[in-house]
Specification:
The chain is 43% helix and 15% strand. It has a 7-stranded parallel β-sheet with strand order 3-2-1-4-5-6-7, sandwiched between helices. α5 links the parallel β5 and β6. The longest helix has 29 residues.
Length: 255
C-alpha cells in the first residue's frame, strides 16, 4: 500500500513575487519539503537573506530578475531555471497587487496595472512553464486566487475581478494540460498577515471587522497557513486534484 507523500525532494519550483510575505513563506515551505527553488523577483537584488535560508536547508536557491509585466523576463526566468536547476516541476504564480479605490474613482492606469500583474502575468508565466512541463510530461501549477474571487470586497472591484478570472483560468488550463500529467490548481486566501496587509490591519476597526468576518476561526491568517496548502497541491498526495480552487479563509465564505 502506497501512503500519501508530501515529499518534494529532487523537484524544482519557481515562485513569482518571492521577495516577501506569501512568496517568501511559500518558497521556504517548498524548500523545507525538499525542492530547489527559483525565486522570481521584480528586483533581483530584493531577495534579502531568502536564498541563504533556503541554502541552510541544503536546497539550491536561484534568484531571478522576473518582473511579470515583462514577457521577456518571464520566459528568460523559466529558461534560466531549467538551464541552471535542470528542470521545472512546480510553478507558483504568487505575485499580485491590489490598488484600492471606489469603483467610480478607479483610474485607467491602476486598472491596467492590476490586470497586467495579476492576470496577464499569471497567464504568461503559466504558458512559459507549461511548455516545459508538456515536454517533461509532468508538472504542477498553483495559482494565487483569493477569497475576493468569491465575495465582494468594497473598493476592490478590479482586484476581485482578476482573482475570479484566475480561478476560472485555473480550470481552463487544467482541462487543456491534464493529458500531459500537469495539474493546475489555485489557493484562495483570506486576509493574511503580510507586509502588504500591514497598513490595513493596523486600523483597529478594520482589523476587528476582518476577524469577525472570518467566521469560523476568528483570527488573521499567517503566511504558512497558505504555504501548507501550496506544498500539498505540489506533492503527489494531490495527484488527482486539478482545476480546483482551495479556499483558505477561516470560514469567511461559509457564512
Amino acid at each position: 500500500m502506497a501512503f500519501p507523500s508530501f515529499d518534494l525532494t529532487g523537484q524544482v519550483a519557481l515562485v513569482t513575487g518571492a521577495a516577501r510575505g506569501l512568496g517568501s513563506a511559500i518558497s521556504l515551505a517548498l524548500a523545507h519539503a525538499g525542492a530547489d527553488v527559483a525565486l522570481g523577483l521584480r528586483d533581483v537584488n530584493a531577495g534579502g537573506d531568502l536564498p541563504d535560508q533556503i541554502g541552510a536547508m541544503g536546497r539550491r536557491a536561484l534568484p531571478l530578475q522576473m518582473d511579470v509585466r515583462r514577457l521577456d523576463q518571464i520566459f528568460q526566468s523559466v529558461d534560466n531555471t531549467v538551464r541552471q536547476l535542470g528542470r521545472l516541476d512546480i510553478l507558483v504564480n504568487n505575485v499580485g497587487l491590489a490598488p484600492d479605490n471606489l469603483a467610480e474613482n478607479v483610474r485607467e492606469e491602476d486598472f491596467d496595472l492590476t490586470l497586467a500583474v495579476n492576470l496577464k502575468g499569471t497567464f504568461f508565466a503559466s504558458q512559459a512553464a507549461g511548455r516545459v512541463m508538456i515536454r517533461q510530461r509532468r508538472g504542477r501549477i498553483i495559482n494565487l486566487s483569493s477569497q475576493a474571487a468569491f465575495v465582494a470586497l468594497p473598493t476592490e472591484s478590479v482586484y476581485c475581478m482578476t482573482k475570479a478570472a484566475i480561478s476560472h483560468l485555473t480550470k481552463c488550463l487544467a482541462i487543456e494540460w491534464g493529458k500531459y500529467n500537469i495539474t493546475v490548481n489555485a489557493v484562495a486566501p483570506t486576509f493574511i498577515r503580510t507586509p502588504g496587509t500591514e497598513g490595513a490591519l493596523a486600523d483597529p476597526e478594520f482589523r476587528s471587522d476582518v476577524i469577525e468576518r472570518i467566521a469560523a476561526l476568528h483570527r488573521i491568517g499567517e503566511p504558512m497557513d497558505v504555504a501548507g496548502a501550496v506544498v500539498f497541491l505540489a506533492s503527489s498526495a494531490a495527484s488527482l486534484i486539478t482545476g480546483d480552487t482551495i479556499l483558505i479563509d477561516g470560514g469567511w465564505t461559509a457564512r
